[in-house]
């Protein structure tokens, strides 16, 4: 039995710094989806996102191995923040806007938590989530940033407020508008919004 | 009309960031205010949809990261 599976991130980081590679593997597997989603929602290209994800973890490796890791924050927030910054830097270097072409559908679609149902309802779920990814890209930048930091990077609203230089009420307001806007866009687009489909 | 402060608390509530006493007060309000309860339901639904939008990287990319870390350990 792998003894690292129940450990906190903080304990895993300490183990990794002392040379335990299994601890690092556990950390990577625990956070890879959030890191990857954070990046792919910005760059919209799977291959670029995988490259940037590798860069993010390599940066984390060097920081931890060199003893520069700050124990104060959460590992998940820290690694997702690195990923977010790398994705934004990528667009700056490419002189492209992260608000361009929308991603349409995906072949990497293996983490849906929905209950398996008929083929038809599964297709509706896939279409809905694919469309949701597109709609996230259409949100104003400040709303999209808060949504991604809170929902995918697992940062608290206070951490987001500190990171973006706004009050917690502003961060909360942006999140609220992001969620309201997503809902409106889904309703306006006649996207499946059947609560029964997503009920447990 | 729901107050902005209450709407902000609703956001904190669905993300489990509301302090215990404020959470209890909000839960009481949810039982008596249908508009607030509907808003809460919508937020939870969108939240669930966002969970479904999570993506998974390839095993190849993950193995590259793990191998890089191991190669550094071997060098040191």
Automatic annotation (TrEMBL), chain A:
GO MF: DNA binding; sigma factor activity
Protein origin, superkingdom: Bacteria
Pfam families: Sigma70_r2 (PF04542), Sigma70_r4_2 (PF08281)
Ranges for domain RNA polymerase sigma factor 70 region 4 type: 131-170
Any one biological process term the GO annotation gives: DNA-templated transcription initiation
Domain RNA polymerase sigma-70 region, chain residue ranges per copy: 27-96
Cited PANTHER family: RNA POLYMERASE ECF-TYPE SIGMA FACTO, RNA POLYMERASE SIGMA FACTOR HI_1459-RELATED
Family to which this protein belongs: Belongs to the sigma-70 factor family. ECF subfamily.
Protein name: Sigma-70 family RNA polymerase sigma factor
UniProtKB/TrEMBL annotation, chain B:
Protein name (record): Uncharacterized protein
Species of provenance: Pontibacter fetidus
């Amino acid at each position: 039995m792998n003894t690292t599976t129940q450990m906190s991130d903080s304990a895993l980081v300490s183990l990794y710094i002392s040379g335990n590679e299994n601890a690092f593997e556990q950390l990577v597997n625990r956070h890879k989806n959030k890191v990857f989603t954070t990046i792919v929602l910005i760059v919209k290209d799977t291959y670029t996102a995988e490259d940037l994800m590798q860069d993010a973890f390599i940066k984390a490796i060097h920081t931890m191995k060199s003893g520069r890791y700050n124990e104060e924050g959460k590992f998940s927030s820290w690694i997702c923040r690195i990923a977010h910054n790398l994705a934004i830097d990528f667009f700056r270097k490419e002189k492209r806007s992260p608000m361009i072409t929308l991603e349409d559908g995906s072949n990497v679609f293996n983490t849906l938590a929905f209950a398996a149902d008929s083929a038809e309802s599964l297709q509706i779920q896939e279409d809905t989530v694919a469309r949701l990814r597109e709609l996230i890209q259409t949100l104003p930048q400040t709303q999209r940033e808060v949504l991604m930091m809170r929902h995918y990077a697992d940062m608290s609203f206070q951490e987001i407020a500190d990171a973006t230089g706004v009050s917690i009420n502003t961060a909360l307001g942006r999140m609220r508008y992001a969620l309201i806007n997503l809902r409106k866009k889904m309703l306006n687009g006649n996207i499946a919004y059947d609560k029964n489909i997503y009920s447990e | 009309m729901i107050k902005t402060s209450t709407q902000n608390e609703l956001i904190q509530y669905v993300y489990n960031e509301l302090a215990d006493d404020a959470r209890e007060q909000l839960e009481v309000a949810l039982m008596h205010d249908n508009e607030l309860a509907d808003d809460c339901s919508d937020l939870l639904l969108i939240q669930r949809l966002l969970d479904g939008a999570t993506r998974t990287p390839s095993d190849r990319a993950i193995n590259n990261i793990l191998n890089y870390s191991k190669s550094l350990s071997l060098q040191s």
